[in-house]
Amino acid sequence: MSPDVWPQAVLDLLATGGDRPVFEDGDQIVTAAGMSALIRRTAAGFRAAGIGPGDGVALRLGVTAPAFAATIAAFAVGARVSGIRPDLTPAQLQDLLSRDDAVLVDDARLAGLAAAPDDGGPLVAGGRPQDIARITYTSGSTGGAKGCVQTYAAMTAAWAAYPDRWPPAIAELAPRLRRYLVFGSLSSQVMLEYGVLALAAGGTLVVARPPTFPEAIVTQRATASVITVGKLYQLVRDQRANPVDLSSLRALMVSGSPLHPGRLAEALDVLGPVVFHGYGQTETGMISMVTPAEMLASPAALASVGRPPAAVDVSVRDGELYVRTPGQASSYWGDPVESAEVFVDGWVRTRDLAALDAEGHLRLLGRARDVIIVNACLVYAGPIERVLATDPDVAEAYVVSRPDDGTGEAVHAYLVPVAGRSPDFDALRELVTARLGGAAAPRTMTLIDRVPIGAGGKPDKAALGPGSPHGAGGVHSS
User: Which pTM does this prediction carry?
Assistant: First the structure.
């Protein structure tokens, strides 16, 4: 068992941090020493409950200091850790727990775990390198949750906790994370990675209260936060119409859908040189990032997602991007068929179309898979189409993605009705929400006479859209 296994670097950082503030929630400020003790107690609670290397722990927690401590403590005892997204439907939650065979830890159970005695001794990470450290669940192509599996070896190889491994873009970003705004779920892959980066850079995790933009930035004097594409658009509009004091802000890490160069330029103009445009996937972690300085200096950089760092290998094969990253996932939990399709000879198929220019900038050109990214949440078109088609008034259903100022991208549905029938749009939206979650609910629904057919004889969803000659009067749901 290696003393350097994840999350030993975080444990050591906190154990030696003394009175330095690392977590702030309103009037509650937790020092590094205080957080270290809380993690030790929680780890002792896990062990007393019989949880150790190889055991499953599913975290369904709020954004609190004990929740952060529980996340790190679960890794410290070598458990197989998964975070429960707050937007899962009851059916999706039950499916996830039944497949993972994990102990569910919510805020009530966490209180008991954290009450365990602290012996004050150093906490040594107990993970075994080849054991599964984390399962990160996303929407799946069949409608069920899909779990990306990372081993302890992979998480140990990642760069966030190790300043000497930071790629140039991360080295530029890290000092700006002095007051890193946290919200949603601290067991989220993106939130945790930037949180660990902030701690390694000497920063403090600050809870977003109120949990809204730009109010939380102003109230908490935040220097950095993750932001979705839709929220970035809204922030830019708000700053144009009713500007507030964002002088504390140093970095906004944009996640989710790719940004149009014109929108990126506008954000830099309105908000200043604070926008970092990153590209990555749950399966890979960060693949590349373009910094404000690079975008302001070069139109080519502005139209890209940056240069992949030396630690990331990229290969464009028949237009599709394959990558290898230090901390990438190795499989999908319980899904050997999908695993074999995506994880190929040590490479990850991104299912994104891409190109590298002469200067090494990575440009995204489209997707080879039928997905929509809604508020940074991956939603597959296929399951939505199948749910819509279960309605007796719907003969055929087709779902497409469209850019959206509110959510980055949004789901739009085109329905061929059964002859003489009129589908109830509100009922259909409720049905999709109940089965697949709110992110999958169509923003609009349009009745069409027939779907356009492409040259290969298959439905041509790219031809669907406003003004399509195949529409039946453009009947929309609002």
Answer: 0.86
